[in-house]
Design brief:
The complex is a heterodimer of chains A (411) and B (407).
Chain A lengths: L21 H21 L3 E4 L6 H5 L3 E3 L1 H10 L3 H10 L8 H11 L14 E5 L6 H12 L3 E4 L10 H22 L5 H23 L10 H7 L1 H5 L4 H20 L9 E6 L7 H10 L2 E6 L14 H10 L6 H15 L4 E7 L3 H4 L2 H12 L3 E6 L9 H15 L1
Parallel strand pairs in A: 1-2, 1-3, 3-4, 5-6, 5-7, 7-8
Chain B lengths: L6 H17 L4 E4 L6 H6 L3 E4 L20 H11 L6 E8 L3 H13 L5 E5 L6 H22 L5 H27 L6 H13 L3 H20 L3 H13 L15 E5 L5 H15 L5 E5 L5 H4 L10 H10 L10 H14 L4 E7 L3 H16 L3 E7 L6 H18 L1
Helix pairs in contact in B: 5-12, 6-8, 6-9, 7-8, 7-10, 10-15, 13-14
Classes of the chains: A alpha/beta (411), B alpha/beta (407).
The complex binds iron/sulfur cluster (2 copies).
Chain lengths: 411, 407
């Protein structure tokens, strides 16, 4: 499919930020996905999964996956985080807990007051703790409310290389998942189907990775908000043809921008790295305001988490390897290494660490990270504080002042 | 009215317990997570001591940890930053338990590269695969200690340690079961002090105090022919099969239970005693707690001396009553249901450590269950230093007054 061409810079001189044509296709793709989750729920084959879950397995069982974290992003963008988190707090969940968890629990409690009337009712809750330990108690709490059973793929945190006993343990968890899926959905496991899904997943991941890597170009064809919005299919439709269809078009547009020297923002003066989930409730305002000052974010540590393809080999072992080795599961030094290499490879001038109050796993350690990255790369960085969904915990003025100070250091 | 007790005094006492070890230049290792295999460290001629929050420690974490890191982790970090943990040969950091502790280990290593950190990563599940995994983790940890600290694994020391800790558990389990039947036989304050003393310096001296107390409790209960019931209950609690026992509970005042995770039981005892004194209510007593460092530590099965020590240790750890950091909320709720019914609980104190995800996720379901069972509850947001002692005691006092009036 050939993309519509992005406009030349002169046509859009008045705008600091260039919209992607693919956003229309993205909307359509995600709308169809939402409809398919509703149908799947009615047909008794909807699973809720965490973002780092080996989704290829449930997809191979003909179930449809809905992602509460992605729903959290919608809640945030719709600016109803405080309302939904408040419903969870009324049930007794502390305000200190992850706001994705709180907003999802709040939406289960009060669907009629939630965007899209909440996620459709799940038949199973599938969690993988390669992103954090919060996902288990969160899903267990939802299980108490919905009656859907929880299956946990346990990937204990790794230090360095994955030892054989760790791999064996994760494999055993995946085999347990297959058994759980067979029983819960009365569907036989078919390895051929899983191989096919894994191939589709890899194709989408490869396209997504190529689009991310295209941002090494100057000007960068994508800004942070572009990647955060466009990552929706790689998270929720990995392993399906729809994801490939979307990313083919998306990547073609990115390539076209590169070929024509069109950047994501009008005038690229400062290239920064973004760390962590974005403040969804102000995602456009935040990045577009900075775009007006010539600040672009060609890379971030978050959307790159979906850039590892399933390696060749025995399929369960390959899945176990790729999902255990997510860098979030490998401790602070792996994350620092990753961020340093992004700074080098994408030729970045500085970095912004978003300290997300309710996401401990991703955020605790950022003070050390900041010092270490500057020591190793020589570029400056700042930490800004807030939350991804709960706008009450975000101080816009403080964030602006800190980023302005950073820009002054660079320019 | 007697003087109020202070949490700071308790902590000062703990320092005294450790003094002889420090003077003798013993190798002490600190640990944080309740299900640390103490026997393994003894086998390597290391003495494991449970670390705890220091009151009045100046905050020295701000340049390294955000305020939303759990308060317990922040306190430990501050202690280290202020050089108050200098007598430790190493610290055991658990992996795979909670996000705060996981990241704390990384930050600690980055800030204090000269410290020896021992990592033991736990599986969340409790099945066969988890057993194999944990066995290997323990074996690797043992090898690492040999290489890093030069302390060889001694079978003789291991056997001694298994016996020591098994005796500690047996005596404490007996006292726990006895207190459930007749809480007046030993105050919660004394009970928690004995356990804490052992966990601070696990050795024959602390064990002797517990065994002596168990003998005294035994002789008191023997007169009332309660020993068979205590033993049956102890066994039932170990096997989680106590729900159909007939238990002769003594008919004193309201029976209180405490739940929470890594909360200092001795601290809770102090607050409770002070609140009792202020409310001028004598008959009310904490009959049971499900905190990590009391019930969950005590009712873990000890490793058998037959078989591979690492596998036996792994089996022992996995036999611990489930923590809020582990899989299985439905099981924990089911257990609680049985406890509420069997032990005629009237009041429930729910402790929540500040910024502790595992504690805070459990609370709503516990509250719901207690409400269903018509159990009166109080929710206590705590920091590990009990810095807000007066306010918490005030809250407990009104809880006790209302509870007594309701009865
Ligand atoms: S705690 Fe962080 S990583 Fe975990 S679900 Fe919440 S936002 Fe995601
Ligand atoms: S379980 Fe809770 S108190 Fe313990 S270290 Fe983790 S967050 Fe802190």
């Amino acid at each position: 499919m050939s993309p519509e061409t992005s406009p030349a810079p002169s046509e859009e001189r008045e705008k600091a930020y260039r919209k992607l044509y693919t956003s229309k296709l993205l909307r359509e793709t995600m709308t169809l996905h939402i409809l398919s989750t509703k149908t799947a729920s009615q047909e008794g084959r909807l699973v809720w999964v965490t973002s780092g879950f080996p989704v290829e397995i449930p997809v191979a069982f003909n179930t449809v996956a809905a992602y509460p974290e992605q729903y959290g992003a919608i809640v945030g963008s719709e600016k109803c985080g405080p309302l939904l988190c408040g419903f969870a707090e009324e049930l007794g969940f502390s305000q200190e807990l992850c706001s994705y968890a709180r907003s999802s629990i709040g939406s289960v409690q009060q669907p009629e007051q939630s965007p899209l009337t909440g996620l459709p009712k799940p038949q199973a809750l599938l969690a993988c703790n390669n992103i954090c330990g919060t996902v288990l108690p969160w899903y267990e709490a939802v299980s108490e409310m919905t009656g859907a059973p929880v299956y946990l793929v346990d990937t204990p945190p790794l230090e360095g290389e994955q030892p054989p006993h760790h791999l064996a343990y994760v494999k055993s968890n995946l085999n347990g998942l297959i058994e759980f899926m067979s029983q819960t959905f009365n569907h036989e496991y078919d390895e051929k189907q899983l191989l096919q899904v894994a191939k589709l997943s890899n194709d989408a991941v490869n396209l997504w990775t190529k689009a991310l890597e295209a941002c090494k170009n100057k000007p960068s064809p994508l800004n942070c908000a572009d990647r955060f919005i466009s990552m929706a299919p790689i998270v929720s439709l990995r392993g399906t043809q729809q994801a490939i269809n979307f990313y083919e078009t998306f990547f073609a547009e990115v390539e076209e921008r590169v070929k024509q020297g069109i950047g994501a923002i009008r005038e690229e003066r400062v290239r920064l790295l973004w760390d962590n989930i974005p403040p969804w409730f102000t995602i456009y305002d935040f990045f577009n305001t900075l775009a007006k000052q010539g600040v672009v974010f060609p890379a971030d540590s978050y959307t790159h988490a979906w850039s590892a393809a399933i390696p060749r080999g025995e399929i369960i072992e390959s899945i176990a390897k790729v999902y255990s080795n997510v860098y979030l599961n490998k401790g602070l030094s792996a994350k620092i290494d990753k961020m340093c290499s992004l700074i080098k490879d994408y030729d970045l001038d500085g970095f912004v660490l978003f300290s997300v109050r309710s996401c401990k796993r991703y955020s605790i350690g950022q003070m050390v990270t900041k010092e270490e990255i500057t020591r190793r790369t020589g570029v400056p960085g700042v930490i800004i504080e807030g939350d991804m969904v709960d706008s009450q915990q975000y101080n816009e003025a403080q964030a602006k002042t800190r980023i302005e100070a950073l820009i002054e250091m660079i320019v | 009215m007697s003087d109020t007790l202070s949490y700071d005094t308790l902590v000062a006492e703990r320092h005294q317990y450790l003094q002889p070890l420090i003077a003798a230049e013993d190798h002490i290792i600190g640990y944080i997570y309740p299900h640390t295999p103490l026997e393994l460290f003894f086998a390597h001629q290391l003495i494991p001591t449970l670390l705890w929050a220091e009151p009045k420690i100046p905050g020295a974490y701000e340049a390294s940890l955000q305020t939303f890191c759990c308060a317990y982790s922040r306190n430990l970090f501050s202690q280290r930053a202020k050089n108050q943990l200098t007598n430790l040969t190493a610290i055991v950091f658990p992996g795979g338990t909670c996000d705060s502790l996981q990241n704390l280990g990384d930050v600690w290593q980055a800030r204090f590269p000269e410290d020896t950190l021992l990592r033991l990563t736990y599986p969340v599940a409790q099945d066969e695969a988890a057993l194999t995994y944990l066995t290997e983790e323990l074996q690797n940890l043992s090898n690492y200690i040999e290489v890093t600290l030069g302390h060889k694994f001694s079978v003789e020391k291991y056997n001694e340690a298994v016996a020591l800790i098994a005796e500690f558990r047996a005596a404490t389990q007996f006292i726990t079961a006895a207190r459930l039947i007749k809480p007046e036989c030993l105050s919660y304050t004394k009970y928690t002090k004995l356990i804490r003393q052992f966990l601070t310096v696990p050795g024959p001296q602390a064990l002797q105090l517990i065994e002596q107390t168990a003998i005294e409790v035994q002789s008191e209960l023997r007169q009332e022919q309660l020993i068979p019931s205590v033993e049956a209950l102890r066994y039932g609690l170990l096997q989680n099969t106590f729900d159909d026992l007939t238990i002769p509970l003594s008919k004193q005042g309201p029976r209180i239970m405490v739940i929470g995770g890594m909360i200092d039981p001795e601290g809770i005892a102090v607050l409770f005693e002070n609140a009792k004194t202020s409310a001028d209510i004598e008959s009310v007593e904490i009959v049971m707690d499900l905190l990590s460092f009391t019930y969950r530590t005590v009712f873990t099965s000890s490793p058998s001396l037959q078989g591979n020590p690492f596998q036996e240790l792994a089996q022992s750890i996995l036999s611990a009553p489930a923590e809020p950091t582990q899989e299985g909320l439905p099981n924990r709720l089911q257990f609680l249901r049985h406890v509420f019914d069997q032990f005629k609980i009237d009041g429930l104190i729910i402790c929540e450590q500040s910024f502790c995800d595992p504690d805070q996720f459990e609370v709503p379901d516990m509250l719901k269950l207690a409400e269903k069972k018509k159990i009166f509850t109080v929710r206590l947001p705590l920091d590990p230093e009990f810095s807000d002692q007066a306010r918490i005691e005030g809250r407990l006092q009104s809880f006790l007054e209302t509870l007594t009036a309701r009865r």
